[in-house]
Write a structure and sequence with these properties.
The complex is a heterodimer of chains A (169) and B (267). Chain A has helices at 2-8, 12-23, 26-42, 53-75, 80-86, 94-100, 103-108, 112-123, 128-135, 139-159, 161-168. Chain A has 169 residues and is mainly alpha-helical. With 267 residues, chain B is α+β, with helices and mostly antiparallel strands. Chain B folds into two domains: 10-62, no CATH class; 118-260, MucB/RseB, C-terminal domain (Phosphorylase Kinase, domain 1, 2-Layer Sandwich), CATH 3.30.200. Classes of the chains: A mainly alpha (169), B alpha+beta (267). Chains A and B meet through helix 1, helix 2, helix 3, helix 4 and helix 7 of A and helix 1, helix 3, helix 4, helix 5 and helix 6 of B.
């Protein structure tokens, strides 16, 4: 049992970091990490032994996050796929985004699938293949999403227009 | 350059930014960029962005792990996902949504999607519980004092080793068991009770799939049930007892079954 803890606990800081980047809310992020750990513990014996533990944990975490986003979408008005693309954006503040150029505000302007690719690859140091596993998409899709994410972020950092465009649209 | 004839593409630029290229390829890509200042500027911006993002988020990962996220604390709360409706409902939605996606979810997390599948075994187990647990005269067909015979008989009828674990550590004694119809197949039901007369049942039958699922919690009125699938058998533990106590029973049964499964020995 301690064996499991010694394998999982070193991953917790990264799980928190990814959760905060997704949710931009510390409490909610730790809730997500807690759900992730609970799920991981109970699914422990069913996990693929040869699979990468970190990628497996990120997979659980992201799937729980997506499920929560979908649930929220369903509870509210009929928001559709476009909403999913933009959620979560709880701290949406065009003014701040234009002023401070916080790199995280730029991240908020990305659709979740691009945001996750960028975070997993550039921050969490997952290989492209591992990111493909977490996202459940082919490698080529990872690369094209990464490319779109970086193009969009460049636009945001240089002019802030990405954020504006999304809001005007 | 002569060793690698592949033209430099978009993927190479990402590989360069993320430090994923072999040294030889990296040299080639850098040489290519030297002749493409526009792309070189983009790569430079992307690298800067990567560093800013990492720096911005680094403090979070440097914090100590909060107590509520320590594995030991999570484990001690008995909060298995199956015991909470919300995450399970979420997982069900996700399975529907990602049904076509296959891949990682289907492979690595094979325990998770299966756990949220409808479990008719639970309905049958709860129905059997209702019928027999109130039975004062003949709650069981074969009594516990004939345990070896009981286990052999049920295992033979099911065509699969039936577990009759010792639950004394959880405060329950085996009363005995019976054979039940379950569609075209038979099912085994064992009944246990504690010193206060609280009864619970362990229902098992051959199920489909060799995989292993999470514990799935269900409640019907004051009756609680944990169900799961492991090694080709469906198991349901049912009782009029609180969830935490029932979970310890389910865990004990699960531990017993998993010790039993590899060699298929009779207990």
């Amino acid at each position: 049992m301690d064996d499991i803890a010694s394998l999982i606990e070193p991953q917790i800081p990264a799980l928190r970091r990814y959760a905060v980047a997704l949710l931009r809310d510390r409490e909610a992020a730790d809730d997500l990490v807690q759900d992730t750990l609970e799920r991981a513990l109970s699914a422990w014996s069913g996990r693929r032994r040869d699979g990468d533990l970190r990628a497996w944990l990120f997979t659980i975490e992201r799937n729980l996050f997506l499920a929560a986003v979908r649930r929220r979408g369903r509870r509210g008005a009929d928001l559709g796929a476009e909403a999913l693309e933009q959620v979560p954006d709880p701290s949406a503040d065009p003014g701040a985004a234009l002023g401070a150029r916080d790199v995280l505000s730029g991240l908020d302007t990305l659709p979740e699938e691009q945001r996750s690719v960028l975070l997993l690859v550039a921050v969490e140091d997952l290989s492209y293949a591992e990111a493909a596993q977490v996202l459940g998409v082919p490698l080529g899709t990872v690369m094209s999403r990464l490319s779109r994410a970086r193009t969009r972020m460049r636009g945001f950092l240089e002019t802030g227009r990405t954020g504006l465009l999304r809001r005007v649209k | 350059m002569s060793g690698d004839p592949r033209p430099v593409g978009e993927d190479d630029l990402h590989g360069l930014i993320d430090g994923r290229l072999e040294p030889e390829r990296q040299a080639l890509v850098e040489a290519w960029l030297a002749g493409n200042p526009a792309r070189a500027a983009e790569v430079s911006t992307d690298r800067g962005l990567r560093e800013r993002l990492r720096a911005r988020l680094a403090p979070i990962a440097e914090e100590a792990i909060p107590a509520r996220l320590r594995v030991a604390n999570i484990r001690s709360r008995h909060l298995y996902p199956g015991a909470r409706w919300f995450p399970m409902a979420a997982a069900a939605v996700l399975c529907l949504a990602l049904g076509g996606a296959g891949g990682w979810v289907g492979h690595a997390m094979h325990g998770v999607p299966a756990a949220v599948a409808e479990a008719p075994a639970t309905q049958d187990a709860v129905a059997a519980f209702r019928t027999f647990v109130v039975e004062a005269v003949h709650p069981v067909e074969v009594r516990a004092d004939e345990k070896p015979h009981l286990v052999t008989w049920l295992s033979k009828r099911l065509g699969h080793a039936v577990a009759a674990p010792d639950l004394s550590a959880q405060g329950f004694r085996l009363m005995g068991g019976r054979l039940l119809p379950a569609g075209t197949e038979p099912a085994a039901m064992l009944m246990y009770d504690d010193d206060r007369g609280t009864r619970l049942t362990l229902y098992s039958r051959v199920g489909d799939g060799d995989g292993r699922t999470l514990f799935r919690f269900a409640r019907e009125g004051d009756i609680a049930a944990f169900s799961w699938v492991d090694g080709g058998m469906s198991y349901v533990v049912t009782g009029r007892t609180d969830e935490a106590r029932l979970l310890t029973v389910a865990q004990a049964v699960d531990a017993h079954v998993r010790g039993l499964a590899p060699d298929r020995q009779q207990p």
